[in-house]
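A reminder before we start the practical. When you read a complex entry, don't treat the lines as separate problems. The point of joint prediction is that each chain is placed relative to the others, so the output describes one connected object in space. Small molecules and nucleic acid strands, if listed, are placed in the same frame. In the example below there are two entries. Take a minute to note the order of the lines before looking further.
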Amino acid sequence: MKNKTRNDIILAGILLLLAAAGFLLFTMLKSEGDIAAVIIDGKEVSRYPLDAELKTVITTESGVNTLVIKDGVVYISEADCPDGICVDHAPIKHVGETIVCLPHKLVIKIESKKTEMSLDAAA
Amino acid sequence: MRTKKLTSLALVSALALMLSYVEFLLPPIYAAVPGIKVGLPNIVILFVLYKYGVKEAAAVSGVRMLLSTLFFGNPVMLIYSLAGAALSLAFMCLFKRINLFSEVGVSIIGGVMHNLGQILVAMVLLETAEIAYYMLVLAISGTLAGVFIGIAGALLMKQFNKC
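Here is the predicted structure of the whole assembly.
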């Protein structure tokens, strides 16, 4: 019984350590992006620069989400999805960060022009 | 004996459904990352897994999922719940069988695998690999939730065996 409790603690420790290591990696790789890509059902439908203010309504098959870009951050101000998780989501601005609206199959993703260009240059 | 088992399983299914409802009523713990939950119904699943077995636990879990989706979920989320619950139960069964962990350890792996299953489905359905970073937060919350559920489940089993 004692051994099992010890193993439980080791298991929890390993999982927490893995997560912490992942976090460290992510914050080290994090850089501010400059493009918000709108992806509906896996297909990219539009891209907006982060340096211009914008308020636009995205219409998907299942409903509408209002996308706002202001002061370099992106967030969803309104949506008619049942859970409203996308509206509650904190504003995003770093490369790779996403706001996901599962009911509408909508993903807003931050990308960077620079990394894309350097990738193109490399290829 | 068969009737008794059937009745017991029906009873705990209803209990799991109630716990889903209680959890549904709770406000989101941390809205920035959806999916952070205590996973109250897992107390029941853990109990059934130990008291009866993996088949019975899968049945109760499936009934709970279908009913909670019908009552207060939304159909799109069913596939997420299904993937999470299936992966979670598979790993809990495995961890119980290797006999190295107590109820708490089994419940921890159950919590984390539930989150992992949902993230994997989201990655496939949305064709976005980036949401994998949610998993970092979910690994922590899943572990903590697993500790809580494991302790609650172990207490429940102890009391139940006394009766």
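Discuss with your neighbour: Chain B touches chain A through 34 residues (CB under 8 Å). What might explain this?
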